Amino acid sequence: MRYELFYWSGIQGRGEFVRLALEDAGADYVDVAREQGDDAIVRHLDGAGTGALPFAPPFLKAGRLLIAQTANILQYLGSALSLVPESERARLYANQLQLTIADLVAEVHDAHHPIASGLYYEDQREEAWRRAGDLRAQRLPKFLDYFEQVLERGGGHHALRQHSYVDLSLFQLTSGLLYAFPRAMQRLRHDLPLLHALHARVAQRPRIAAYLASPRRVPFNQSGIFRHYPELDDPA
Predict the structure, then answer these.
(1) Which of 145, 227, 228, 162 is nearest to 201 (CA)?
(2) If you average pLDDT over residues 116-133, what whole number do you get?
(3) How far is Cα of residue 134 from the mean position of the Cα atoms in its chain?
(4) Half-sphere exposure of 181 (CA within 13 A, CB side)
(5) Of 159, 130, 162, nearest in space to 147 by CA
(6) CA–CA separation, 164 and 94 (whole Å)
(7) Residues near 221 by Cβ (< 8 Å), separated by ≥ 6?
(8) CA–CA separation, 93 vs 86, rounded Å?
(9) Does the pTM of the predicted model rise above 0.70?
(10) How far apart are CA 207 and CA 214, in angstroms?
(11) Tell me: the pLDDT tens digits for 7-47?
(12) Edge to edge, what strands does the sheet with 65-68 contain?
């Protein structure tokens, strides 16, 4: 099957979690907006397509199915691409972990847009400084310690005791945090050996390594969820 991924071109955001799963599995897929432009996404959001109506990208077309929401897409692809164990317990746990990752991603976004997504960062800089301080001091340690415990309970190498889309998502999450909050992540590094080891292993997977070295991997930038504003990172 050839999948069609719909996500804004040039933006490093939630679509990257889906893209990593497709790349790791060697799936046949087309990045629609990169080939046809962002208007191809807007047409679906305006209701031009048939079937399920997506609220926002990313969304995925798989045959006659249209699937939206990152965790929902990965739940589908996990089974379709053998990126999740077969048991119902494992699939539910994988979805639980992916939703928890999504919670942290939302908090990272709100660190630089705490008042409104429609306002520029410069319009909410003071509020962002306060929100980012709480993220660094309270929320990041809480979430990342949880994921460290998940890896420990999973045997130390994988979230689910074998490679899965959750490992790929933890890689993307860690990559984004290292870009956005390098000093804060360095401060926490000693407490997260399993998470950082997983990050290194995923980067060395042959298909992931090839993808990361290719132009298909959009660099982190100030248009995505993970943005680096030095004033929001740990004080020097």
Answers:
(1) 162
(2) 94
(3) 21
(4) 28
(5) 159
(6) 8
(7) 10, 11, 12, 227
(8) 12
(9) yes
(10) 11
(11) 998 888 999 999 999 999 999 999 999 999 999 999 889 98
(12) 28-31, 2-6, 59-62, 65-68
